[in-house]
Amino acid sequence: MTDTAQTPHAVEPDALQSTLAALLGERAQSITVVRGEVTLTVRAADYYAVMQTLRDAPQSRFEQLIDLCGMDYQAYGDGRWEGARFAAVVHLLSVTHNHRLRVRAFCPEDDFPVLDSVTPLWASANWYEREAFDLYGIVFDGHDDLRRILTDYGFIGHPFRKDFPLSGHVEMRYDAERQRVIYEPVTIEPREITPRIIREDNYGGLK
To answer: If exposure means fewest CB atoms within 10 Å of the residue's CB, which of 20, 73, 121, 205 is most exposed?
Structure first.
């Protein structure tokens, strides 16, 4: 028996850009095509509604959320970045139309970054949003179980933020007298190590 089902041809990036512009209108802050990949940037206030439209509209039909991560733009562009600091970046896949999309939404406030959770739209966003909360401190409003997923329960801070110290804030060790693991302030003093370079004219027998 021959399977007559065929995979739909991939939509050209420029065509997808035009489709999204017509579908979203002013809710799309920008729609760019770089290296054949389409990136849609939306405001935090429009984030959830836009994502629901992208999932349900017949011309988009992004049935799958395949990735979501946090971003910290504090030192982006060698410090020339002047926009909001934190963002969530989402990758969507349409099986129906065979096209992919990157969606980016910036948090309105740097001190307390918040975005709507998209777990009611895609269950796969659950652990991704927990990871972004754990590593970047982005709070996803409406998430049913927003807690750390990679770091320990007693961990202080968010380790993927650009201003997080490389040595951390606390160190963990086993205390034999107390017979348990304890946390203590880090005793390592931050320092910058400059590697020593030795130049030899005849290194390794080479001339």
So the answer is: 205
